Target: ABC-type xenobiotic transporter
Amino acid sequence: MSLPAVEVTDLHKRFGTTQALDGLELSVPPGTVCGLLGPNGAGKTTAVRVLATLAAPDSGHARVVGYDVVRQADEVRSRIGFAGQHAAVEEGLTGRDNLHLVGRLHHLGARGARQRAEELLDRFDLAEAADRLVRTYSGGMRRRLDLIASLVIRPSVLFLDEPTTGLDPRSRNDIWAIVRELVDDGTTVLLTTQYLDEADQLADDVVVVDRGRVIASGTPEQLKSSIGTRVEVTLADPGQLTDAARVVAALAGGEPALDLDTRSVSAVSEPGRRILLPQLVRELDAAGVAAQDVALGHPSLDDAFLALTGSRRTAAPAADTPDADASKETVTT
Model:
């Protein structure tokens, strides 16, 4: 059995009075994508910075491809790539010169740096823009160049800290394609993201962090199936939202969400509560609620995140994904 590409045990890190990491535990198999999710301030970026040797932990242990991030930091650095949410490229240089510079900093030599730059520019479709100054690049192109620069040394493990934040959908898809290609080649990727659909699309395993601790982990499907059924009722009359919410709350448990704009009530049932569509329709009819549409479906990763952390991200809503409405059972009246 192969050793984990990333292994974290009881990791602690404090900044002043803020406990950023509080006993973090993590294990990432080689050649996989691990999505690290959590509310703002949960400790995701701190964890990545410690693993990338950019910050020292207060206590605990972390290993990357078998090397301790504190005692063997140089060995770790020679085997990892890192790209953050802000492109760390020189705007006064061309794309090609940026890659040459990174190669020389990693002691590839002039010829080796040039060869590696050409390989990456061709492979990831930046060859045509290679001789333009980076300041003329779009945001998506800069982020792509930054990601490519992290690949100059052919890393065994790539750390991506919110790499697509603020990008348009096409640029995000470009980054996703690069990540998939790297994993196909055997690279291990640890990804923090504020886009839940990104984790759903890319991650083999998802680790949910809150207050510096892991509160849940599993495949995206396992996390989604760990909570109940998603219920959504759309009404003809917004004046009946409160009555509909009472019915949904009684069946699902917990507090439903009301949306005046869409005239809808939605909730995810508590684990173990089974809701049947005919039962929901009968209860709404009995309460005198005129439902325009009633739907039951599998919860999304966003629903799972909300159930696990009690908070939604402040990020832009996730893009529509093919499985967003998969296995949904509906009645339209």
